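Quiz preparation item.
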């Protein structure tokens, strides 16, 4: 039972983190030159700067102090729905080595990301099993 509560807590934290982003459709897009040399609209994806010279020190991180009371209350109020969602995921076959249910699992994840409010969610073709993109 404790393990189930842990899974529900993680699932609920992910749900709580999925906040809608502001509508920026009214803002003009800048134009950048694409590979073809013709102007293409710039994408609004986040940019990350990675510096390999930085060193992580765990001592510099403050201890986590939040209790997530609202998350646990949400879990308790919606326990049956959360359990049903976990059971739905567990019931979906997904055996990579046998290629059993892989596409269906990827589609289920894509659809769930869309239902959670992700702006983008799509299957990504690869040389092997499909990937799932969500933003």
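Solution:
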């Amino acid at each position: 039972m404790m393990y189930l509560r842990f899974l529900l807590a993680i699932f609920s934290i992910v749900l709580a983190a999925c906040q809608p982003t502001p509508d920026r459709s009214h803002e003009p897009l800048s134009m950048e030159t694409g590979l073809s040399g013709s102007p293409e609209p710039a994408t609004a994806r986040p940019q990350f700067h990675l510096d390999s010279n930085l060193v992580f020190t765990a001592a510099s991180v403050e201890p986590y102090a939040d209790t997530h009371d609202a998350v646990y209350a949400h879990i308790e109020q919606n326990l049956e729905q959360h359990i049903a969602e976990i059971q739905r995921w567990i019931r979906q076959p997904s055996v990579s080595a046998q290629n059993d249910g892989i596409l269906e699992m990827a589609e289920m994840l894509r659809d769930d990301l869309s239902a959670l409010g992700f702006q983008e969610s799509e299957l990504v073709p690869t040389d092997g099993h499909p990937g799932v993109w969500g933003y």
